[in-house]
């Protein structure tokens, strides 16, 4: 038997015989060796590849994704700050808005929501649709304005009393029982503001202003000859211009719609579509709300153009679903002098409005293109007033026309911006 040392002695050359697990001799196979080598190389390559990709995927890719997201969200954020794409109606329907986070709600609204939207409610992405337009009250249009103007020229007042607002305004009653509101001011520019704001509304075809006409306080005229004592009591001066507006009874205070109350006040087609999902309101109630909002869209544009200071705070009224735009004396002159102080309030509303009446938008585009608003206003003034009025009441100043043209252009830009963001095409 051999020793331990001899047992570990290595042969001088490799043995041609290999042994299996049962100690049976097997012959060496070159093909088998090559397959083993290839398997080892393949396994090593796969392992190396996976080892490299894991840190790339899980360490570097998130950074790249974050960089892309930051860029995209930065662009989206700018748009959201300007137009506020999030759904304002959620302030009244909190359960529903909580179901839709702001950005994801807008992203997923897309085709499904557009398909569900009714073209009769929203047209072209930024215009009120046929159903809303057809439901709007008729209001006061050119024929009614002409009738009132002719009436004032022949009217005889028999009574004058306090009413129709503040200061020296008065409520007058005519022989046939009709009534009118007289706006009297010491400052001529406030009478100009009231009158030319009314003319601007006619150019914009807004039916929301009560018929008005300008006159002069003259005790020799039939209109005033029965009111000597009342005029003296009111401390009116003779030969002062006044604006006489048709009196409208049964007015109710019109409240600001909830869609404009939040800090992020806005109105666009997504807000409109979400209002239709309110389970509490039936279709008639929903359309009625849209009728009011359509008039508000006109009001926001009108007050931006005129820089009216008082409307939203003090003087908005409802008459059989018609919003009546009263108290325009600060428009176009006095309001323009205070733009630096109050401009932000009008701009906030305008810059977050993306639903318009198509007719109003078309007129704005035409006025912007032609730049003729000054001539149109002066033509109306010259055509509708006699020499007595024109001798004591100046036409609209050039400075006001210049500012008005600038503000028309801003409204035009807002409509164009909304069209680029929300248009269906």
From TrEMBL:
<dbReference type="GO" id="GO:0005615">
    <property type="term" value="C:extracellular space"/>
</dbReference>
<dbReference type="InterPro" id="IPR024868">
    <property type="entry name" value="FJX1/FJ"/>
</dbReference>
<dbReference type="GO" id="GO:0007267">
    <property type="term" value="P:cell-cell signaling"/>
</dbReference>
<keyword id="KW-0812">Transmembrane</keyword>
<keyword id="KW-1133">Transmembrane helix</keyword>
<feature type="region of interest" description="Disordered">
    <location>
        <begin position="1"/>
        <end position="20"/>
    </location>
</feature>
<dbReference type="Pfam" id="PF06702">
    <property type="entry name" value="Fam20C"/>
</dbReference>
<protein>
    <recommendedName>
        <fullName>FAM20 C-terminal domain-containing protein</fullName>
    </recommendedName>
</protein>
<dbReference type="InterPro" id="IPR009581">
    <property type="entry name" value="FAM20_C"/>
</dbReference>
<feature type="transmembrane region" description="Helical">
    <location>
        <begin position="35"/>
        <end position="59"/>
    </location>
</feature>
<feature type="domain" description="FAM20 C-terminal">
    <location>
        <begin position="290"/>
        <end position="419"/>
    </location>
</feature>
<keyword id="KW-0472">Membrane</keyword>
